[in-house]
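The passage that follows is intended for readers who have already worked through the single-chain material. We present the inputs for a multi-component assembly, then the predicted structure in tokenized form, and finally a short commentary. You are encouraged to pause after the input and sketch how you expect the pieces to fit together before reading on.
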Amino acid sequence: MKGHVAYQQEIPFRNLGGGVQRRVLSYNEELMTVEVAFEAGAVGAVHTHPHTQCTYVLAGRFSYSVEDKSVTLGPGDSIVVPSGLPHGTTCLEEGVLLDVFTPMRKDFI
Amino acid sequence: MKGHVAYQQEIPFRNLGGGVQRRVLSYNEELMTVEVAFEAGAVGAVHTHPHTQCTYVLAGRFSYSVEDKSVTLGPGDSIVVPSGLPHGTTCLEEGVLLDVFTPMRKDFI
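Having made your guess, compare it with the prediction:
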């Protein structure tokens, strides 16, 4: 098949430390789908990248910042972060984020 | 906040008929996040568009085709469909797909 299929259960999480794990799911040059699992209290430190990103909360509750503003996101909530803006998150209740990037994150594979 | 936040519970589904409903969540010019809910047996007819798409199964089970090949996807499974390739789906067990498009789908708003 020309589309890239990723069966979730075949892909183990990679432990990033600090209560954060990541697994890269389906991708091509234009899009990359990534799950990031957080323990309560774990932090995704503020960072920037040229990729535009959307984050969809699969489970849990998160404080999510873009520049100097923060929102609280729960299951089903989502945010699109424009290219180059500083963003980060703190996990309030254990959960999983689905991050989708355009273009794909070459640094993740 | 410069990111676009979408709180899921504030956004109603739009009934597309045939057991399919859609709601557009967060987006900007580069990315658009969309939930599509299917009753069992409902069909997302084969179609094409220039946008690159990833589909992540939030719930349910789906037969998903790209060109003349099909796969069965369950919760957490995902697929990236390159620009311009014919693709479609048949819902095997009631569920919801998360579709992310790059660039955004102007025809959806």
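Commentary: Strands of chain B lie at 4-6, 14-17, 20-27, 32-38, 43-47, 52-66, 69-73, 78-81, 87-102. The domain at 34-104 of chain B is CATH 2.60.120.10 (Jelly Rolls). How closely did your sketch match?
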